[in-house]
Amino acid sequence: MRFGIQVGHLGGPLDELRRLWRFADERGFDWFSVSDHFQETPGQGGGEPCFESITTLTAAALETKRVRVGCLVFCVSYRHPIVLAKAITAIDVLSNGRVSCGLGAGWHEPEYRAYGIPFPSAGTREDQLEEYAQVLRLLFDEQYADFKGEHYTLVHAPNFPKPVQRRLPIWIGGGGEKRTLRTTARYADGWNVPYISPAQWKSKNEVLDRWCERTRRDPRAIARTVNVGFYMGADDGGARRGEERFQKEWGANESRTGFLRGTGRESAATVAAYRDAGAEQLNIALRAGPYDWAALGAFAQDVMPQFR
After folding, report:
1. Of 19, 40, 98, 204, which one has the fewest beta carbons inside 10 Å?
2. Of 256, 258, 223, which is closest to residue 1 (Cα–Cα)?
């Protein structure tokens, strides 16, 4: 398996974030990704710090040497495709070909409303996602891009320089079985879904396989990944503190089960369940720091090597 670190809320503190992406680079993680929000999520009143994703990702790319960097996911409602394409291309050049571009249809309605961003129906947002993925592929790959859709239009549109990577990976995040996974099968190089159980992940992975069959896409061309919340402790005391943090960040009524909780032994059993379900990569998902560095070190030293 491959392993990554995903930061679900870029609230800092900044020195903790910088230490985290350096930790990922130095301790054998394959992936470091950030989230794309303008305020904390889940919402806590909007008063918490939240760094902008592209700027943060650029800093992470410049301060690492080997780990792949990306965003899971960039919301298609927040930027015109050429704005994101230019930014990602620049990061790819700066990182010498280590960036991946995740996309999502958007979901956090309070954030849209707070900033006056139109929040169309789910069907419209899925339509936008499908067009957006095609437009980015053209901007990354073609000398000049032409596209005429309902939501986006390109006319002999350039994007120079080109990315360093011959095929810069486009990922799609989400588990919608009728639209999101169909778009993934048609246009994506990777797929990610967060916080669901191994059994739920396996079920959605099988749906993606069926969409690949219908669209005549080789299912092996799409990387299959999962995000799991990280509340592991290095020892029993750390596990208790991790549980306190889980309750603070998610609450007692959280029904999803895609989290690493308890000690390393318990977390390893959960990782094994995702591996057996077919996950090729598991990203531990953190929120704002400060972080439990003993737990992170234990995961890198004791859990990850069992699955390499």
Report:
1. 19
2. 223
CATH number where 156 lies: 3.20.20.30
Supply the range of the domain harboring residue 79.
Answer: 2-307
Count the Cβ atoms, other than its own, within 10 Å of residue 71. 27
Q: What residue type is 143 in one-letter code?
A: Q
Give 78-126 pLDDT, tens digit per residue. Answer: 999 999 999 999 999 999 999 999 999 999 999 999 999 999 999 999 9
Per residue in 137-179, pLDDT tens? Answer: 999 999 999 999 999 999 999 999 999 999 999 999 999 999 9
Distance CA 238, CA 252 (A): 19
Which three-class secondary structure string do you get for the chain?
Answer: CEEEEEECCCCCCHHHHHHHHHHHHHCCCCEEEECCCCCCCCCCCCCCCCCCHHHHHHHHHHCCCCCEEEEEEEECCCCCHHHHHHHHHHHHHHCCCCEEEEEECCCCHHHHHHCCCCCCCHHHHHHHHHHHHHHHHHHHHCCEEEEECCCCEEEEEECCCCCCCCCCCEEEECCCCCCHHHHHHHHCCEEEEECCCHHHHHHHHHHHHHHHHHCCCCHHHCEEEEEEEEEECCCHHHHHHHHHHHHHHHCCCCCCCCEEEECHHHHHHHHHHHHHHCCCEEEEEECCCCCCHHHHHHHHHHHHHHHC
Distance CA 184, CA 192 (A): 10
Kindly list the distances between the CA atom of residue 71 and the CA atoms of 51, 84, 120, 126, 165, in Å, as whole numbers in the listed order: 13, 11, 23, 19, 17
Number of folded domains that form the chain: 1
- Asked if residues 297 and 234 have their Cβ atoms less than 8 Å apart, the reply is yes
Structure tokens at 217: 């896409």
